[in-house]
Specification:
single chain, 110 residues, mainly alpha, 2 domains, two-stranded antiparallel ribbon, 4 helices, 2 strands, elongated, Transposase
């Protein structure tokens, strides 16, 4: 067997192993020290050089239904308090305890 055919056989086996693994290509390539670009290169090369396609290239259709998008009022996700020359902006992700600490600190200063 020539080196070229041997390499093609090795890659055909790698591609089948990846597809059988059940994990995505990026993860499989990382686990097997193979670059994703090499993987896709060999899929194209093997598909172009033979009548038998490598991998599952069958097409299946699935029905997809979309629900109407709800309109949200976006206030920027924050509240701004202005008091006595100070400005405090509170984001929507801040915890209640953190707000209480900030307000207690402000009360003690003001």
């Amino acid at each position: 067997m020539s080196r070229k055919n041997n390499l093609a056989q090795i890659w055909a086996e790698r591609i089948k192993a990846c597809q059988a693994s059940g994990i995505n290509v990026k993860a499989w390539c990382g686990e097997n020290n193979v670059s994703a670009s090499q993987y896709y290169y060999w899929i194209r090369k093997l598909n172009n050089s033979s009548n038998e396609l490598v991998g599952d290239n069958s097409v299946e259709w699935a029905e997809v239904s979309l629900e109407p998008k709800k309109k949200n009022i976006d206030n920027g996700g924050s509240i701004t308090l202005n008091y006595n020359g100070f400005k405090l902006e509170i984001s929507k992700n801040i915890k209640r305890d953190d707000i209480a600490e900030v307000l207690a600190a402000l009360v003690s200063v003001c």
